[in-house]
């Protein structure tokens, strides 16, 4: 599920769902090891579409109806979060407390004009179907692994 | 005054390198640090008298001002154009423009058209949607090599 922050409210922090505040030492150690690396990738689920993303990527998803151009989204369905040497695999999702992934909506375009002609000769059956697929283009503005002390 | 550049032009043969756009600074990634709204201007034209502008005039009198207040980042210009069909034109940051004729459309349909133009960036939409993720970051885990794997053991 996506949660959109309108531009005027960007300074307010989105309240996190209830999460256990204490993680074991081994968990914290593992996450800090991941955090110490240079670059991260994440396999993210946006309305049941899966993308492998890094920072500054452009993601072309199906049209998201409840979102406006310029909104900042916080992605909270992450299946895998990793770096060069370490990976966290979610079961099925990685805990939200480990990461902070944000995306900005760049535009909501339509695809090229597609015409589908259906014809059955000698049966007076002729159909012309026109279609323009709708998309939402997102820019991944940040992928951060949170620090645990 | 002795000028080094004049000297070079007079006595040496300078060949201009093939002009090719290369940037030394990194290209701005809209949305990462800051977001600049891609649609910068909307132009509305209508005719006072003709019937095809009826929906347009209704839109301009009822819905345009709330739209303009919600989108203070867009410059909105309304000009009468007598004896011509009504038109909505959007100008974008990349220099391109997108114009749609709204002749004989109702006020609601014109609102949808205006939202379509506002939500666009001006890029041609022919071949842009073939890949789901467009990335310039180098591979995070590195490209696979047979020298970095452990041989399969039975």
UniProtKB/TrEMBL annotation, chain A:
InterPro entries: bL21-like, bL21-like_sf, Ribosomal_bL21
Sorted UniProt keywords: Ribonucleoprotein, Ribosomal protein
Any one of the GO BP annotations: translation
Superkingdom assignment: Eukaryota
A molecular function (GO) term: structural constituent of ribosome
GO CC field: mitochondrial large ribosomal subunit
HAMAP family: Ribosomal_bL21 (MF_01363)
Stored NCBIfam families: L21
Stated family: Belongs to the bacterial ribosomal protein bL21 family.
Protein name, as recorded: Large ribosomal subunit protein bL21m
Taxonomic source organism: Dentiscutata erythropus
Automatic annotation (TrEMBL), chain B:
One Gene Ontology term from the biological process aspect of the record: mitochondrial translation
GO cellular component, one term: mitochondrial large ribosomal subunit
Swiss-Prot/TrEMBL keywords: Mitochondrion, Ribonucleoprotein, Ribosomal protein
Gene3D superfamilies cross-referenced by the UniProt entry: Glutaredoxin (3.40.30.10)
Name recorded for this polypeptide: Large ribosomal subunit protein mL43
PANTHER family tied to this protein: 39S RIBOSOMAL PROTEIN L43, LARGE RIBOSOMAL SUBUNIT PROTEIN ML43
Pfam families in the record: L51_S25_CI-B8
Residue span, Ribosomal protein/NADH dehydrogenase domain: 48-121
Protein location: Mitochondrion
Superkingdom classification of source: Eukaryota
